[in-house]
Amino acid sequence: MGYRCMLWLFLLCLIADQGLIKGANGLACNWGTRSTHPLPANIVVKLLKENGFDKVKLFEADPPALKALGNSGIQVMLGIPNEFLAPLAGSVQFAVNWVQQNVSNYISRYGVDIRHVAVGNEPFLKTYKDKFLQTTFPALQNIQAALIKAGLGRQVKVTVPLNADVYQTDSGLPSGGNFRSDIHDLMISIIKFLSDNNSPLTINIYPFLSLYADPNFPVDYAFFSGSAAPIVDGSITYTNVFEANFDTLISALEKNGFSSMPVIVGEVGWPTDGDPHANVEYARRFNQGLVSRILAGQGTPRRQTPPDVYIFGLIDEDNKSIDPGNFERHWGIFYYDGTLKYQLNLGNGKSLIPAKGVRYLQRQWCVMSPSASLSDPNLANSINYACSYSDCTSLGYGSTCGQLDARNNASYAFNAYYQTMDQRRGACSFSNNLSVLTNVDPSQGTCRFGIMIDLGKHETPPKRSLAGRNQNSVLGLMALFLALIFIVCSA
Ligand SMILES: *[C@@H]1O[C@H](CO)[C@@H](O)[C@H](O)[C@H]1NC(C)=O
Ligand SMILES: *[C@@H]1O[C@H](CO)[C@@H](O)[C@H](O)[C@H]1NC(C)=O
Ligand SMILES: *[C@@H]1O[C@H](CO)[C@@H](O)[C@H](O)[C@H]1NC(C)=O
Ligand SMILES: *[C@@H]1O[C@H](CO)[C@@H](O)[C@H](O)[C@H]1NC(C)=O
Question: X8 domain: from which residue to which, for each copy (predicted)?
């Protein structure tokens, strides 16, 4: 290889390394693991990488997820659930152990690129009342002390993901923003602490919830393409609630002397089921608007530098609490198994790529027996039983399966149970004779009757179906790279 050619090669590597080839702005998302059948962690990490996500947020130190993220090139924000706040606040030693076991260990032994520890999850949410007011700040301080003790003070930053309800505006305009009066002083103490430690503030913003909570909320204003009902705030005109909400926070920070405080958007997204406003069309519209801003590096009127934005979420979680609403289990850009819900334009001609190599249970469904009667006295109890152990949130009003007739409705519930129970023998015998197995997919229209992911929990090994081919993409890329060098060098 000639000297000129080596130079070219060097330059190529340099460009590739700077990310200039793959498009400079990476995406970030939340990876929740509250599923009865979590998509295998190595498949999720591949899914993240293939779709250009270079930052991920976890809600807890899930060992399979962390191990799979080792040496992946993906930066990790690692969450600590709220139930840990009290013990963390009460004991520095507890924090030292937590950091040792859940941070240091994964950095040194597995090569996980942990950049942030997120202490608690929306601990000051109004609906929690005062439950975590006393413990959050001391827990944050103890984790910070533990990180310093572990020699990770520079590398790993602390933060507290807060719901946007920690600030408000009395004037109704973003410029009137300030922190909620009941937690104002606490917020200032926490922000000062974060600022002193070069750490960011993390805020979750949910335009969907604005719409969900207020039937009179102008739908258009929830999306980035909104144009109706703009809000005029001095010289600024806001056409979407995301910018207005974010700038309300920026105003609050400015008012309290933290105008250059770095801010991360920890969660933002749109669900596809479980509510009339939660559907594929709205979710695609919202997330496309969001992704386009991120890729364009767009800030808001009050803050030109764009924040890191973690989309919520990557995949659906069928075991999440539905206290906030049925939509909670449907925030994924992808379904539970990594298949596509809708397409997104990711710039440079790229679009979403579904998960590969997922193993499924056999292609069979449990449905209401054709010979069973709708007036069978055991039917209602059987449906209730099925739905108490599996996810029936798609059956609700305005949801994807909300239009089913009573018979198909029962079938949906029976199948949800059967799949969640790994198609086990006896899991399709409601009241002995109300249900039967079928090989014909009962899905209709938008209503999907799923087949569960095979986690090896069933009794008889079914025929393995491999969705999608194995990836030869790495080899392909290498070949392309070599061909390029050949062309360059022979020129
Ligand atoms: C689902 O969540 C509940 C409550 O958090 C938990 O007790 C249960 O073990 C979970 N089930 C599965 C299969 O993960
Ligand atoms: C590490 O984190 C997990 C999940 O958050 C938790 O169950 C475990 O107790 C933690 N380890 C320590 C030593 O606190
Ligand atoms: C189902 O079984 C019950 C008793 O378990 C019986 O009374 C009923 O007639 C059976 N129905 C059918 C359709 O076989
Ligand atoms: C379908 O099942 C759900 C869940 O059990 C129930 O709330 C709903 O009323 C049922 N709808 C019909 C048409 O039977």
Answer: 364-449
